[in-house]
Amino acid sequence: MKLTTGLLLVPALVFGLSACDVKQTQEGQLPDVEVKGGQVPKYDVDAGDVDVKMEKKVIEVPTVEVDTPAQDQKEDGTK
Question: What does DSSP assign to residue 19?
Answer without folding.
Answer: T
